[in-house]
């Protein structure tokens, strides 16, 4: 399930430290090392899934759990009412740089649309 060469699997395994803010049976969340907003949390599945393109039908509950995590984190961070973004990049052309899917949860400042 875990991938030896994957940075986020190493965080899941405790090999690389991270500022964890949320854990469930299926998802873990930690603060982004290079935050782009006052709140910038990455929500990842415990299962190694490289990109959105690699999500399988059996993963639907896992993917749903990422959004449940985002909702909970937004509430705890006090950004739920003002608004926040929960976004996942897919492949290099969209800016994905770590190939273990992750939901960026961004908030605490006005966020413009469309993104660059
Ligand atoms: P992507 O570009 O793949 O959508 O997002 C990857 C995110 O992971 C980036 O926002 C980057 O700052 C973050 N990141 C990269 N390496 C680390 C790390 O070692 N620890 C943490 N907490 N975040 C990381
Ligand atoms: Zn991984």
Describe the structure.
By secondary structure, this protein is an alpha+beta fold. The chain has a single domain, classed as HIT family, subunit A, CATH 3.30.428.10. The protein is built from two helices and five strands; from the N terminus they run H-E-E-E-H-E-E. Strands 1-2-3-5-4 form a five-stranded antiparallel beta sheet, covered by helices on one side. A hairpin with a 3-residue loop joins strand 1 (20-23) and strand 2 (27-31). It is globular, with a radius of gyration of 14 Å. It starts with 6 loop residues before the first helix and ends in a 9-residue tail after the last strand. Guanosine-5'-monophosphate binds next to strand 2.
Can I get a quick summary?
The protein has helices spanning 7-12, 60-77; strands at 20-23, 27-31, 39-45, 84-87, 103-107.
